[in-house]
Every structure is written in C-alpha cells, then in structure tokens.
Amino acid sequence: MTSGTFLYFAYGSNLLRERLLIHNPSAVFECVARLDDYCFGFCGESRLWHGGVATIFKRPGRHVWGVVWRLNVADRDILDWQESTYNPKEVGVVAIGDRVLRCRTYVRRGHSSKPSPQYKNVVVTGAEQNRLPEEYIQSLRSFTDNGFQGDIPVYSQIMKEVRQQNVCV
Q: What is the pTM of this model?
C-alpha cells in the first residue's frame, strides 16, 4: 500500500463514486473485488435514507462484490464519521488475479429491514457504474424496497452529480 493511503472496500451506497466523493474527495478507484464468506443485506433504519441500509453478514460459501477505493489516511476520520452507525472492520478481499487486498470496511448490526427505493437505486447504480457481475447486480435489484416516496435531499444531490457526470462523458 502506498504510504499515506489506505484501502476501503465499499459494497453499499459508497459503490457509487458520486456518493463517496461528497465527503471523501481523495478517493480513487483501485479495483473491483470480492469478499468471500459474507452475504449482502439491508438492516436497521436510517433517518437520512428513510429505510434500511447496506451491511454484510458472515455466511460461509457466499460472497459480496464491491469496489476497493484508495483514500488518504488523513480522510479516515471523515469516512469513520460518514459511517458512524457502522463498526469498522479489516477484511481481505480478492481482486482480479486472486490478489488479496487488506481493506477497511464497515459492518452495521441490526434487524433485517427494507431500504428506501432511493437508497436501493444508489447501490444498484454504483454496482452498474463499476461493472460488477451482472448476476450480482440482479441480486441487488431483487431486494424489496419499503416504497418510501418522500424527498431525500442527499439522494437528490447524488443523482444531480450522476447526471452531470453522464453529460460530460
């Protein structure tokens, strides 16, 4: 690892570049990777997102796809603040070529719950943006949302950034 940086494995809303960059401008895409012996789900209730948020559960034989981001060490406190309802955890993820990378990730504890459609869309859009395996993207789409139809300001901000990036490409 480059001195002064750390690796972060994102599997939820921070898959989406525009979401992560709101508070973590030093983040640079490193690679797509797989976390073995875990599965993806939604839990808890987020006031920000009006529903459940992403987490991982230990499940032998299963795996979670995600993105490894490289961030400046100086930004770790900002990421910890952003993920303050989660517990940080060091994990080994498998990148292309079976290269194992040690990464920081975050795990939230709580009861299973449904995400808002907006939060689920951010996760799915991030998976598509980073070209995660199609069958995995389909599994993310298959989660039932809670049907929330109100305004979520952070969602509006993120999607505005996504639209601007798509215009500039």
A: 0.93
